[in-house]
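--- STAGE predict ---
source: upstream dedup step, 1 unique chain passed
mode: sequence only
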Amino acid sequence: MAKTRWSILIAVAALASQTACFTTRIVTDKRPETRAFEHEDRQWFTIGGLVPLSGPAGRECEHGLSYAESKMGGIDILINIGLSVAGTLVGASACTSGTEAERFSCATSAGTLVPFLLGSRTVTYTCAAAPSARDLAPAAPGAPPPPSALPPPPPSAPTP
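--- STAGE serialize ---
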């Protein structure tokens, strides 16, 4: 019995240490709208994030996106926890016969499989402004790009 508890504790600690809030940022060379505000959308995926179930973010942006960020936010973490708990309960109720180890294995397998099959991420984005005449004019050969075409510098690391 004590060995089972230690096994469960080690499994939970290993799973908890593997979670992370991965963030992907995309910055384009397009200027944001003058009255820019961030839009937020929830994207749904299946098969571990490989197959999208929802449409792309920014469909309402007439001139494309200026900035986009995809992250695993707090609500997404709660959704994953809820899906895991629901999968565990379904797995436990589906495997009522057999030994305790078989029922435990069935419940944990279902609890792991459901969040793998359905997951969400939060996407925050800013629409791009309409191109101006300056943006449409061709640059002189050898001239540096205009400042609006350069991506912002990366954030500086804090110094100790």
